[in-house]
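A quick aside before the break. I want you to see a complete sequence-to-structure record at least once, exactly as it would be stored in a machine-readable document. Don't worry about memorizing anything.
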Amino acid sequence: MSAPSSSDDRPSLPGGLDTARLGVIGGSGLYAIEGLEEVSEHTVRTPFGEPSDALRLGCLGGMEVVFLARHGRHHHLLPGEVPYRANIWALRSMGVRWLLSFSAVGSLQEACRPLDVVVPDQFIDRTRDRPASFFGHGAVAHVSLADPFCPVLSGHLAEAAAGCVPAGRQLHRGGTYLCMEGPAFSTRAESQLYRSWSCTVIGMTNHTEARLAREAELAYACLAMVTDYDCWHAGHADVSVDLVIDNLRANASLAQQVVQACATRLAAARPACPAHAALRDALMTPPAQVPADTRRRLDLFTTPYWGPFAGPG
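That is the input. The structure line, written in tokens, reads:
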């Protein structure tokens, strides 16, 4: 199945973007995409273990889309158990170059109300001991994360969301996502600390994804869907699973609409993004010095710079 084109005479884009696919990672409450056509499921084996679930490939809004449920379709994986490296590797192996993350978050600011949505542009990471790089084992790379969310893709996502957010709910462009370890929610002291840092929302997953997506040269953007006020707000109930689930249901319909609207925009634009060449100036180790096993694991990403790996199988 080849990617649909919005114009038969459009020139080829750099880096194979004219045939690249859109990836969608669904967080809590988003375990499938409605409206996908010609759907097929793919079990992908990766050098970094098994992904969270089978990947579903289909067509939506004139674009080939690959969907993955971050926590599994039955939500059986804790945030710290999500196989982030396997997920990102699998998505890239299926031709994804733009990646949208849909995530449930708590709000750390009064103006960002439950059921609002945020397209964040910055991170603070408070996770622990999560594998957050494809590199190591004899190969060193230092990608830039100054702008951890792709500004180009985030712009398309925000414009798509702006046309879908109903009256009474607000779209916030920009903001800082505090990524905590979980799985427990914050203490009141932690919640107030993160507010003092001017963080906008709090979640448990996206920073790890964003770092790995940058190494995999995927443009990455997030629609953070607010379910609660964490536990800092004296005028609202403390965050609970029941509260989150109730608001997740309300968010699910909006998420489906935004996915379709963004897919339609990207099918027409197919934008080249800075992230698509993130490794160009990041690779430090001479390829001849990289162990064969490491070269093999990294070949999906490094071929444009090191050439295809031709060592022993």
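Two observations worth writing down. Confidence is low (pLDDT under 50) at residues 1-12. The first strand starts at residue 21 and ends at 26. We'll return to this after the break.
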